[in-house]
Amino acid sequence: MKVCLLNDSFPPVIDGVANVVTNYAHILTAKHGAEVMVGTPRYPDADYDNYPFQVVPYRSFDTTKIVKGYRAGNPLAVRSAKRMIDFQPDIIHSHCPVSSNVLARLVRNETSAPVVFTYHTKFDVDIARAVKDKFLQQESIKVLVNTISACDEVWCVSEGAGENLKSLGYEGEYRVVSNGVDFEKGMASEEAIKEATGDYDLPENVPLFLFVGRMMAYKGIPLILDALKMLKEKDIDFRMVFVGKGADLDGFIATAEEYGISDKVFFTGAIYDREALRAWNTRADLFVFPSTYDTNGIVVREAAACGLASALIRNSCAAEGITDDRNGFIIDENAESLAELLTRVSKDLDHARKVGENAMNEIYISWEDAVSDAYDRYGEILEDVRAGKMEIRRKTMTDHMLDATADFINKTDKILNIPRKTFEGMIDNTMEMVDYIIDAQERRNEELRSIFDSAEQSMAEMYEKQERMTDSIRKGFKEVIDDAKRLV
């Protein structure tokens, strides 16, 4: 099976969806023997050659000042699109509704391969943060929903993600296909824990709470800090560790100092070493994740892999599959509810560990299992297409435009494949013309400089003559005045 995976982020960019695509590509290749091609915007100086699968980086534009760390891809990049079309994929799987979906539909129109789209992120929240104008927000959401609706099958990483997509105006069906965790089940050794956590003041038998994720307010971190302030006011000892980086980090550090809890709250920055993260998950007594933004909460499953239970917001996507006080803890979305739970956990750490063991056994899913489920579904989709049970989406006006673009790409590709010598001759002739123009311009510049120098000299001479004339007149007037004074 040939699978074309598309996403707007991929290493060297590190985010949740980039991690998903990387795991899909590696496991499809190694475990299922699939031929995989990944299409993603190009990042300067990135090395895309050392993967066991093909990576096609296409032209991108620097948008890092608008969206920190990210570049926008040009899905109509001629050479890259042609490579994906020539790959002749059986399945096209897009993980982003922007450039990736445009490219997916273009390749579909030329290959008839069905397009699967996975909805990972609440894009309405992302758009609201990036675009302040309400009308533009609504129009942007319409565009995204339309491009998602043009796909042949839509997957969502949770029921909550699917309902969020429906709330944006999507009217089609969706299938829940969960992401996995690249942690194997098991706890870190005492030696690994000491190495990862030894630089921090973490007394034994003092409850340790952990958060891993981006340091952004929408992750619920202000709620955590407010709850910790309440614990301090109750004289309950604790330690809290935040792992991650983000735009709001400095503000959180300032809040911890303002609340008088900076001696109990530590910000480690981002940790990319997976075994170091395993050590933190093993050392902690409770994972605190009051986010209503996340559609899947992979970090919750990573914590479960290490036997660590999580505190989650009621009805959030991350809380799907969680039974309160059985394999996790459910709270209301306010600081009082979290503070009450942290108080209970602090008094009975053994119970928290038992809930963590249940989480390990009941909610953990490996990436191997998750990708195997996806691979099986790919096969079912292809069977349905061959049997006529699934029709490739009818072409919209946009698809006809993409057809025209594909035709342009094919014709342009023929031009680009003109023998190298012809191109070299064209380049030589062009460079000769450029040299001639540059020489002519330099000669013209010399002439102009000569004219300006001559004009400057003439002006200087005229100025000197004018000065001499003025001095002569001044002296003449002075002599007349002096003669008049003598007569008087």
Task: Please tag this protein with its features.
488 residues; Rossmann fold; 3 domains; seven-stranded parallel beta sheet; six-stranded parallel beta sheet; 16 helices; globular
What do you see in this structure?
The chain is α/β, with parallel strands linked by helices and 488 residues long. The chain folds into three domains: 2-180 and 369-414, Glycogen Phosphorylase B (Rossmann fold, 3-Layer(aba) Sandwich); 190-364, Glycogen Phosphorylase B (Rossmann fold), CATH 3.40.50; 427-479. The protein is 52% helix and 13% strand. The protein is built from 16 helices and 15 strands. It has helices spanning 16-30, 78-87, 99-111, 123-130, 134-149, 159-167, 190-197, 221-233, 249-258, 274-283, 298-305, 335-347, 349-362, 367-386, 397-416, 420-487, and strands at residues 2-6, 35-41, 54-58, 60-62, 71-73, 91-94, 115-119, 153-156, 175-176, 208-212, 239-243, 265-269, 286-289, 310-313, 329-331. Strands 3-2-1-6-7-8-9 form a seven-stranded parallel beta sheet, with helices on both faces. A six-stranded parallel beta sheet has the order 12-11-10-13-14-15, sandwiched between helices. Helix 2 packs across helix 3 and helix 8 (221-233) packs across helix 12 (335-347). The longest helix has 68 residues, at 420-487. The chain is globular and about 100 Å long. Mean pLDDT is 85; it is low at 411-438.
